[in-house]
Structure formats: C-alpha cells, structure tokens
C-alpha cells in the first residue's frame, strides 16, 4: 500500500476538513499521521488544559483502517464517507460502544457499559470519522450544582483551562470539546447543549459552535437532561466544518422518534453545505436587540468591536433592524425566575433513571444512587454539601407534575410573546448579539444558534457573535454566519508562549 511517507509539509495547525481531505487525495498525508499529530498534541498539552478525559486506545488502529480503505477506494473506484479519516472528539456524555467509557465526567459511571453507540456516533462512524477520544465537561452538565460547580470542572479530568487566558473562564458544559478544537488537539468535536453548553464554551474559547434546533439531531444514547431542551451539535474552528458535520448527523431516528420526526422536516433537500455562501449576508434582515445584550457591555472592547461588526454586516449587504425589544426579556434571562431551572431538574430526575437502566451495566441506577456514591466517595468526586445541591433538589421533587406543567406552559408563553413575536413581526432572518447573554432566549424555546469568533478583549479573552433564529432556520443562520466569518476572519489560534503559561 503506497501512502505518504511523511506529513511534514502538511500544515496541521488550524487544518480544516477540506484541507485534510485534499491532502489525503494528493497523497501528502495519511490518517495515521494526522491521528499521531493530535495524540501527541494531547499528550503535550492536556496536562495543562484538562480538555480530554480519555483517548481511544484503538485510535491508531482505526486510522490505519481508514488509510487502507482510502487506498482500496482509489484502486477500485469506491466511494468514501464525507468525514472519512477525520478525527473527532465527543463529549463524555455521548455514548460510544468501544473501549472508552461514557461517564459525564464522574467516577459514579466509571465501568458502566452502553448497549450500543449513540446515534450521532453511529452516523459519524458511517461517514468514516475516527473517534479519537472523550472530551471533558462541567461534570453532569453542571446539574449536580449549578451555582457552586466551577465551569469546566469534572472529577475525572479536573479543571478545564481556557487556552487563551489560563485564568479565564472556559465556560461549559461542553468545555473540553471547545478547548480541544481551539487548541488544535483535534479537528472536530461534538458537544451537547441544553441551556448554554455549546454556545458559551465556544464563545469563550474562540471556536465555532452550532446549536441545532432541538430534534434536528438525535439524542439517543446521550446522557439526558431534558427532552424539551437537549440538542447535540458540532464544535469546530470554522463554520464550514460545523456544517459538514451537521449534514452527517442530522436526520430522523426511531430511537428519538418524536423529536427527530418533528424537526427533520426542516432539513433542506441537498443538505446544509449549499448555504455556505460568501455573500450570505446580502439581503438578510438581522435584528439588533440593544437592551440588555449590548447596553450591558457599556464602553468595553467587546461593545466597540460589536459596533464595528455591525458596520461590516451593513457593508456586506445585510439589512439591520435596530433597537428592537423582546417582551419579558428580564424574566427570560433569569432561569431561576422563569422556572427554567426547576423544569430542567424535574426533567433530569425522570430521564436519568431511564438512561441508567438501559445500560448493559452500571454501578448506579438512579439519581439517589449517584448522590449516595458521591457521599461515599468524597476523595474521588471531591464532593461537599454544596457540590451536589442540584442533585439533592432534583431528587426531592415528588408529586409536582402540575407545577412543572404550569412552568412549561409559562416558558412556551414567554417564547411566543417574546422572541417569536419579535422575529415574525419584523420578518427577521436572525437575531445578532454579542457574547452569550442571549443564550436563555434560545434555550427555553429549543431554537438554533451559531456563535462565530469575533475578537479578543484587552486581556486576550475571546468573544463571539451569536446568530440565533426560530426553529428550522439553520439555512439562514449558516449563510449569515459564514458570510460574517469570511468577512472578518477574526479567529486566531492560542499561543502558549506567555509567562502566564509557564508560571507553575
């Protein structure tokens, strides 16, 4: 089998799916060389970044298989999958039926065995991707203690670190997925998002994060929180790479039938890549809600950059509908006040035992078991009375179905009278906001959004621009986000040369 003898001429850093496949086709790179590069990078940097919980012990063997498949396809004219040979890290809540665990970052699930791959992993493998390992996260999606658990911390990996500013917030819960992509530990990763878990870490770590409409991507085989809000999406360095992944993982699934059947009708014929248009901003009606998303920034670097970016949007042909308002926005932005947190905890209490009891083997089978494990193993889980108050609150919920139903109805009302009404009355293609403050607007309605790197503040901390829309509006969001990305090219890879990175 004749393959590239070395990959020294290939620019590994910031490599895109298209560049990798081009190098494969030109015999300048093998999948094994690419996997070796990422594994070596993980070995070098993960002790600092704490972004990867475990690597796939079969990663190199899978890369060799991919190289053999590509060689045979060349000889026989065979067709390869759209992600063939692309290494992918998946969040440690996304089930893989292999030698790796699926633990939500907790020792409570170490040793558990899934019955089969999650649907998204099944689709990735079918597309030819190489599952490189499991990315760290805010343990149990931070639900074990929403107010006290640090962003990006889990017992198994430790504290995730922002690769741009070591003392900065990596956000969560898909912290490891975003850190890994930003620091070039992998080409592509998968995260999950219930409230902020894709958008926030991507914003804070200068990555592109695509939060799909709830149900557009199957959640089967993924540790759940809430069927109303959970979604799975790609985290990459470019909008294009996110869209290449979305095309492979979106679609109906009998294992998540109700949600995926409802949302698969949004998938356009020909997929999403057709909306990667350099002039994607032209003619788009973009809503600007200054209060509180812009006004709260005052005269900061982020605020100034946002104004410059608005000018770029106009220059690229977008129609800005400025000074809009969302009804009930103060309540929407306070998840404790709106009832969102209470509903999420109630959903989690019912969903987690169902998930645990579907496992082939698990040391815990209920939320009560998890709480007990944490109490018995404080040295492993580093648990104290504050660090599982979320679990304890969820477990104490008994007989409050009517209250939860009332909260859900109220959240639906907030969506209809707020974001939906603003979008529809102004005939908007997207709402554009700086940073992460608008996240609850999307979360409570199961709406999609894409965050794109937009710059860095005085300390070097990244920030993004968020394009969000109504259910099924991914084509318009992709076109606008791609147009913005191509016009600004704001993302820069992190540097590990500053004194901050060597002070220890």
Can you put this structure into words, describing what you see?
InterPro entries: Amidase_dom, AS_sf. It comes from Spinacia oleracea (Spinach). Pfam families: Amidase. This is Probable amidase At4g34880. The chain is an alpha/beta fold and 504 residues long. The protein has one domain (17-267, 277-502): Alpha-Beta Complex (Amidase signature (AS) enzymes). The protein has 18 helices and 13 strands. It has an 11-stranded mixed sheet with strand order 1-3-2-6-8-7-12-13-11-9-10, sandwiched between helices. Strands 4-5 form a two-stranded antiparallel ribbon. Strand 4 (153-154) and strand 5 (158-159) form a beta hairpin. Helix 2 packs antiparallel against helix 3.
Let me know the number of strands.
13
Strand content: 5-15%
> How many helical elements?
18
The radius of gyration over CA amounts to: 22 Å
Residue ranges: pLDDT <50 for 5 or more in a row? none
Q: For the residues shown, what is the average pLDDT? A: 95
Pfam family, one: Amidase
Organism: Spinacia oleracea (Spinach)
Domain Amidase: 34-440
Protein name: Probable amidase At4g34880
């Amino acid at each position: 089998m004749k393959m590239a003898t070395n990959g020294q001429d290939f620019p590994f850093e910031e490599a895109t799916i298209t560049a990798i496949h081009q190098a494969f086709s030109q015999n300048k790179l093998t999948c094994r060389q690419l996997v070796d590069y990422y594994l070596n990078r993980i070995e070098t940097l993960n002790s600092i970044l704490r972004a990867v919980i475990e690597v796939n012990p079969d990663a190199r063997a899978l890369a060799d298989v991919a190289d053999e498949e590509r060689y045979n396809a060349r000889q026989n004219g065979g067709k390869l999958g759209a992600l063939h040979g692309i290494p992918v890290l998946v969040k440690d809540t996304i089930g893989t039926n292999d030698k790796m665990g699926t633990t939500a970052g907790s020792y409570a699930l170490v040793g558990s065995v899934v019955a089969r791959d999650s649907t998204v992993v099944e689709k990735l493998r079918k597309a030819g991707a190489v599952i490189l390992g499991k990315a760290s996260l805010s343990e149990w999606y931070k639900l074990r203690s929403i107010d006290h658990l640090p962003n990006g911390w889990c017992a198994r990996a430790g504290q995730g670190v922002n690769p741009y500013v070591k003392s900065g917030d990596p956000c969560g819960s898909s912290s490891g997925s975003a850190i890994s992509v930003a620091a070039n530990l992998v080409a592509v990763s998968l995260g999950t998002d219930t409230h902020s878990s894709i958008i926030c870490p991507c914003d804070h770590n200068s990555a592109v994060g695509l939060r799909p409409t709830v149900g557009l991507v199957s959640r089967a085989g993924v540790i759940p929180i809430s069927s109303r809000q959970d979604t799975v999406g790609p985290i990459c360095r470019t909008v294009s790479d996110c869209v290449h992944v979305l095309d492979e993982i979106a679609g109906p699934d009998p294992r998540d039938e109700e949600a995926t059947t409802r949302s698969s009708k949004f998938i356009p014929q020909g997929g999403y890549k057709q909306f990667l248009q350099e002039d994607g901003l032209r003619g788009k009606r973009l809503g600007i809600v200054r209060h509180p998303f812009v006004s709260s920034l005052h005269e900061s670097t982020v605020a100034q950059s946002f104004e410059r970016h608005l000018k770029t949007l106009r220059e690229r042909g977008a129609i800005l509908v400025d000074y809009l308002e969302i009804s009930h926005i103060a309540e929407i932005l306070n998840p404790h006040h709106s009832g969102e947190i209470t509903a999420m905890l109630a959903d989690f209490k019912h969903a987690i035992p169902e998930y645990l009891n579907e496992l082939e083997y698990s040391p815990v089978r209920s939320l009560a078991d998890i709480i007990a494990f944490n109490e018995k193993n404080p040295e492993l889980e580093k648990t104290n009375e504050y660090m599982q108050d979320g679990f304890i609150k969820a477990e104490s919920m008994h007989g409050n179905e009517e209250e939860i139903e009332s909260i859900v109805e109220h959240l639906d009302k907030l969506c209809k009278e707020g974001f939906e009404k603003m979008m529809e009355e102004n005939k908007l293609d997207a709402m554009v906001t700086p940073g992460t403050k608008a996240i609850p607007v999307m979360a409570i309605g199961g709406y999609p959004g894409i965050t794109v790197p937009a710059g860095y503040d005085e300390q070097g901390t990244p920030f993004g621009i968020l394009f969000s829309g109504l259910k099924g509006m991914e084509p318009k969001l992709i076109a606008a986000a791609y147009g913005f990305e191509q016009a600004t090219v704001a993302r820069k890879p992190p540097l590990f040369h500053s004194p901050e990175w060597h002070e220890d």
